[in-house]
Design brief:
The protein is of the alpha/beta class. About 45% of the residues lie in helices and about 10% in strands.
Length: about 350
């Protein structure tokens, strides 16, 4: 009797063991098949298109500051250029003016963005007949190396006031984005004068006072033949550009605000250029000694604008300042109306 019970128990254990082994083998086979299955939504597709600026790997951003810096110094090899898929692209945005409005500061600050590369020098392709005759390939070769996803930006303030430029840029790219940075017109005119005055003094040359340049001695009216005054009549120049480009392709930057509170202005430009927001308070710090904001690219690399920025302006006769402001007022009102942006200019 006992022998029969032991035999029955062994038989049950055998059946249970067989079932357990069979289940285990099924699970192993199932896991193997799952490994071979493609996920319904791969990681790559969930991250979005691979070339969007916000998906740039950190290593690529480091190359932007490292490898591209070596390229600007001429130290990178053709093999590095090929290996990292670097290109020289025509600009997709241009800072066209205004002279003494803050074009250099704007360009340097935008270069904080990892998706932006800048042409370091003013190229003067579209406003210089000799350069323009060299052709578009010459212009492209003046552009910095970049990764394909990045936006190249150049700035030449003379573009804004040169008659031939709008048509020439339109022929290159009719959908290009155009940035104009402006300051209060009288302040900008005095700043313009101050830069020229400094250049004259370096050469030990004399120069007329601002009042004599800005006011016609015969009529006692504003001298519109004086270039510093003409440049500040923003609406006259903008109307010429609007013959070729719709107003939606322009973005007006407040140059006075860029000095005192730059981040909001830079965020507006990011949106205009369809860039993800990347520039933050971390990238901008106020230098009390210089009286301007400086740039922080990372924990080791900071940069302040050249010492020539922020020159001290000469004292100007208050009656001349008042006359100029009264002269510019109707032009300013029209500029507000065209651009849709209002400034607190007197």
């Amino acid at each position: 009797m006992l022998f029969k019970q032991q035999a029955l128990l062994r038989q049950k254990l055998f059946v249970l063991g067989s079932l357990a082994i069979g289940s285990l083998l099924y699970l192993v086979a199932r896991v193997g098949s799952l490994d071979r299955l493609q996920p319904i939504c791969p990681i790559e597709s969930r991250l979005g298109p691979p070339h969007l600026p916000e998906q740039i790997p950190l290593r690529t951003l480091q190359y932007k500051r490292g490898l591209l810096h070596e390229l600007r110094k001429g130290n990178a090899t053709k093999e590095q250029i090929r290996l990292h898929n670097l290109v020289q692209l025509l600009p997709r945005a241009i800072i066209i003016g205004v002279r003494k409005g803050g074009t250099r500061a704007l360009l340097e600050m935008l270069n904080l963005h990892p998706a932006v590369v800048k042409a370091s020098q003013e190229i003067h392709f579209f406003d210089n007949d000799q350069n323009y005759a060299r052709g578009i390939d010459w212009y492209r070769e003046k552009m910095p190396f970049s990764f394909p996803h990045q936006i190249t930006i150049e700035k030449s303030p003379a573009y804004f006031i040169t008659e031939e430029v709008p048509e020439r840029i339109f022929k290159m790219n009719s959908s290009i984005k155009l940035l104009i940075i402006v300051r209060e017109p009288t302040t900008r005119a005095v700043s313009d004068y101050t830069q020229v005055l400094e250049g004259k003094e370096r050469k030990n040359k004399t120069y007329h006072k601002f009042e004599k340049m800005a006011i016609d001695g015969n009529t006692c009216e504003v001298n519109t033949k004086y270039k510093a005054v003409r440049t500040s009549i923003y609406t006259k120049h903008l109307e010429r550009w609007l013959k070729y480009f719709p107003v939606e392709q322009f973005h007006i930057v407040d140059g006075d605000r860029l000095i005192t509170d730059p981040l909001p202005e830079l965020q507006l430009v990011e949106r205009f250029l369809n860039l993800p927001s990347r520039i933050s308070h971390y990238n901008l710090y106020f230098n009390a000694t210089r009286g301007f904001y400086c740039l922080r690219f990372n924990i080791v690399f900071n940069k302040c604008l050249a010492g020539s920025k922020g020159r001290i302006h000469p004292e100007v006769d208050p009656s001349v300042v008042a006359k100029l402001r009264k002269f510019f007022h109707p032009f300013n009102q029209k500029f507000y109306q065209i651009t849709g942006r209002t400034f607190n200019w007197p």
